[in-house]
């Protein structure tokens, strides 16, 4: 009997619960140094001089002048390793200081004298493109833009029976992973620099280090330690380059670990967004025309923002067929800490508009919120919002039908509880890096003398359980038991570059590569390598493969103090064949709770270019007591080109939660203006002559 489709316990569970798992901060060596960044106290300023004090024994300071190439490789290469002529956000690194103790490193960093000439601050993305706005770059504050047109939406709006229009302001969200950014580096016995880090991309880290220091790629070994969560926030340089720089020049082991304050204030973030959208419906509920505009705040540097913009625009119409679509967006620079990848990668920002339109239109046209979604549900072969065809399997219609059979829907439709608000929303999320982006995975399998197998890939289990799911695929491909597979992941040695662990791609691309290598092993080889390429070429669409979800939420609102109590949430998930239902439930529940925080409590707010939130004391993430009772059901519509029929789904559960909650709250508080997240509790308070009264 195979193990694919069964809820195998996580292969890393024992090591984690017993403390045997080694996170980056657990590594240490004799003679190690501690690295601390010298950070700018200004959000925007010219650097006039940097003066390093006389250095004591075993004390070091390095700046941009020490580097071969002073930039962090990414889409636009606009971010320096160290600011040298200008700082563009509060806390931007100017130098790295290292000493034998952490206290000594902090003291040394504080003694570095930097003379700044402050400049005007761009603190509001809505005014970043104004003619009189201070310019972060010589070219201005427009990082990039996106435009797409299908059909003639402006003409069709005039013929629609119902036209809806809304604007939303979406917040900056922190990833909230438990393990802060961390790196440990040393010189190995063979003379190569070894980098151990909490990361999503070991090969990417190696390239960043070698680029900055002018090293040959083979002179650096990069590997991931046990990763305590990432969600996109470790997809790119955080601490890695700074530890490596000190090790390279001193030949000493180095530990660089960010504090929680550094993480909250200056770590990567979800992009703030302004969403303006309009939707036109026929009298029978068909979505005829849609126009959407998003402006994303990418902060001081582009990082992965250009891809976030494009994906966010692509997902703005949701899982619905729309014949006439106009999409426009800008990614703008501000003097905020850089935003980059975060679970959902731009899709949650746009989803609130289309899903709110669906719910509002259903009420005005006399349809149920499921009927209107069934009418407009995309199916395989439909043309997407930018004209490209949905080529792969789609189970969205089946998920809607499954939702219709739940106890939640029966209660919501036939016997709603007094004082309880109900909300439904749906979402989709792409899988893979997208068209015109190389997307491949390399796997090697080695047969051991005891009959077991070692499967190697550079992809990383960052807490999502991919090591378990991939081992299940390998076991069934090789025809052996689950216990006979050992996964070796996250290292640049012994395998090829498989790209970042991101974009809900690991199970699909790596599972297919495992299947190819397993065929060679079954053919008699003891060592086999295979590479799976995921080509998505042609057309204007960004992606062609998606996961889908339908979600419902039950909640109450205390009109006296505006607090929202989440009661129940049910999800119907379509992700093709399910490799491990227990892991799938974990992904859904985790994504739901993350987006509950996005909707109700989480926001990084800037004043004069500086984050007002500094740690988990004033940046409020949900706890288990804040989460609703969670229920997940699965619709399996196998994907023909997926491993055992699987598609990726890790990000999908984050997309539809916010509009579901907003709809439920609106049903209880029709007088409230909910046009921004997180929902303002004051907006939900029932006010009579200045005195609040309870009304649930």
List descriptors.
alpha+beta; Aldehyde Oxidoreductase, domain 4; 5-stranded mixed β-sheet; single chain; 7-stranded mixed β-sheet; disordered C terminus; Aldehyde Oxidoreductase, domain 3; 3 domains; 16 helices; 696 residues
Explain the overall architecture.
- The protein is of the alpha+beta class.
- It folds into 3 domains: 109 residues, Aldehyde Oxidoreductase, domain 4 (2-Layer Sandwich), CATH 3.30.365; 89 residues, Alpha-Beta Complex (Aldehyde Oxidoreductase, domain 3); 310 residues, Aldehyde Oxidoreductase, domain 4.
- It is built from 16 helices and 29 strands.
- Strands 3-5-1-13-10-11-12 form a 7-stranded mixed beta sheet, with helices on both faces. A 5-stranded mixed beta sheet has the order 7-17-16-15-8. Strands 18-23-24-27 form a 4-stranded mixed beta sheet, sandwiched between helices.
Low-confidence stretches: 688-696
Strand order of the largest sheet: 3-5-1-13-10-11-12
Q: How would a textbook summarize the main sheet?
A: 7 strands, mixed
Corresponding CATH architecture of the largest domain: 2-Layer Sandwich
What is the CATH class designation of the largest domain? Alpha Beta
Topology readout:
Elements: H1 13-18, E1 33-39, E2 45-51, E3 60-62, E4 86-87, E5 93-99, H2 102-111, E6 113-118, E7 142-150, H3 153-157, E8 162-170, E9 173-174, E10 182-187, E11 193-197, H4 202-213, E12 220-224, H5 240-250, E13 254-257, H6 260-266, E14 269-270, E15 272-281, E16 287-299, H7 305-314, E17 324-333, H8 347-365, H9 369-376, H10 396-404, H11 407-414, E18 421-430, E19 440-447, E20 453-457, H12 466-478, E21 485-489, H13 506-522, E22 527-533, E23 546-557, E24 564-574, H14 581-600, E25 606-607, E26 610-611, E27 629-635, H15 657-668, H16 681-684, E28 687-688, E29 691-692
Parallel strand pairs: 1-13, 11-12, 16-17, 20-21, 24-27
Antiparallel strand pairs: 1-5, 2-4, 2-6, 3-5, 7-17, 8-15, 9-14, 10-11, 10-13, 15-16, 18-23, 19-20, 19-22, 23-24, 25-26, 28-29
């Amino acid at each position: 009997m195979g193990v694919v489709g069964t809820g195998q316990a996580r292969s890393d569970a024992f090591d984690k619960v017993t403390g045997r798992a080694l996170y980056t901060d657990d590594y240490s060596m004799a003679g190690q140094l501690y690295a601390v960044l010298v950070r700018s106290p200004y959000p925007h300023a010219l650097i006039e001089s940097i003066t390093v004090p006389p250095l004591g024994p075993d004390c070091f300071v390095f700046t941009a002048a020490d580097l071969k190439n002073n930039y962090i490789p990414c889409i636009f290469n606009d971010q320096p390793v160290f600011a040298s002529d200008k700082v563009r956000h509060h806390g931007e690194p100017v130098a790295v200081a290292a000493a034998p103790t952490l206290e000594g490193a902090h003291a040394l960093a504080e003694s570095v004298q930097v003379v700044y000439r402050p400049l005007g601050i761009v603190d509001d993305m809505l005014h970043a493109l104004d003619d009189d706005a201070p310019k972060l770059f010589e070219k201005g504050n427009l990082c990039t833009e996106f435009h797409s047109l299908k059909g003639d939406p402006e003409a069709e709006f005039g013929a629609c029976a119902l036209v809806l229009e809304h604007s939303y302001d979406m917040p900056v969200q922190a990833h909230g992973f438990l393990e802060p950014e961390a790196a440990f580096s040393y010189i190995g016995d063979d003379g190569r620099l070894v980098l151990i880090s909490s990361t999503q991309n070991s090969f990417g880290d190696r390239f960043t280090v070698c680029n900055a220091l002018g090293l040959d790629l083979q002179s650096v070994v990069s590997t991931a330690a046990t990763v305590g969560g990432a969600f996109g926030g470790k997809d790119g340089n955080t601490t890695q380059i700074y530890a490596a720089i000190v090790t390279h020049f001193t030949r000493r082991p180095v530990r660089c670990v960010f504090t929680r304050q550094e993480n909250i204030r200056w770590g990567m973030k979800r992009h703030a967004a302004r969403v303006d959208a309009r939707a036109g419906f026929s009298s029978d509920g068909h979505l005829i025309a849609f126009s959407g505009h998003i402006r994303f705040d990418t902060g001081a540097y582009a990082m992965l923002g250009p891809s976030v913009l494009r994906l966010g625009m692509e997902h703005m119409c949701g899982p619905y067929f729309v014949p006439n679509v106009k999409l426009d967006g800008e990614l703008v620079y501000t003097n905020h800490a850089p935003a980059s990848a975060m679970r959902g990668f731009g899709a949650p920002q746009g989803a609130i508009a289309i899903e709110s339109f669906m719910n509002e239109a259903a009420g005005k046209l006399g349809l149920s919120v499921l009927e209107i979604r069934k009418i407009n549900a995309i199916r395989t072969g439909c043309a997407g919002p930018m004209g490209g065809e949905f080529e792969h399997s789609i189970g969205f219609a089946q998920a809607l039908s499954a939702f219709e059979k739940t106890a939640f829907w029966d209660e919501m439709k036939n016997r709603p509880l007094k004082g309880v608000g109900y909300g439904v929303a749906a979402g989709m999320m792409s899988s893979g890096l997208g068209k015109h982006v190389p997307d491949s995975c390399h796997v090697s399998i080695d047969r051991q003398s005891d009959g077991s197998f070692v499967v190697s890939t550079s992809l990383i289990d960052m807490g999502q359980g991919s090591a378990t799911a991939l081992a299940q695929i390998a076991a069934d491909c090789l025809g052996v038991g689950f216990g006979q597979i050992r996964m070796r992941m996250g290292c640049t040695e012994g395998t090829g570059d498989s790209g970042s662990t991101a974009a809900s791609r690991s199970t699909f691309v790596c599972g297919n590569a495992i299947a190819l290598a397993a065929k060679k092993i079954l053919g008699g080889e003891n060592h086999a390598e295979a590479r799976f390429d995921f080509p998505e070429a042609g057309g204007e669409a960004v992606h062609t493969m998606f996961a889908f979800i339908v979600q419902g939420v039950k909640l109450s609102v205390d009109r006296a103090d505006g607090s929202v109590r989440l009661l129940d949430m049910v999800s119907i998930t379509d992700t093709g064949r399910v490799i491990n239902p227990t892991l799938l439930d974990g992904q859904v529940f985790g994504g739901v709770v993350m987006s509950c925080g996005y909707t109700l409590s989480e926001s990084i707010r800037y004043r004069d270019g500086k984050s007002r939130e500094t740690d988990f004391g004033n940046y409020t993430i949900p706890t288990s007591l804040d989460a609703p009772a969670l229920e997940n059901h699965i619709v399996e519509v196998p994907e023909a080109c997926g491993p055992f029929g699987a598609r990726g789904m890790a990000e999908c559960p984050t997309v539809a939660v916010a509009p579901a909650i907003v709809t439920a709250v609106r049903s209880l508080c029709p007088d409230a203006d909910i046009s921004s997240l997180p929902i303002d509790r004051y907006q939900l308070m029932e006010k009579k002559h200045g005195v609040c009264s309870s009304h649930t």
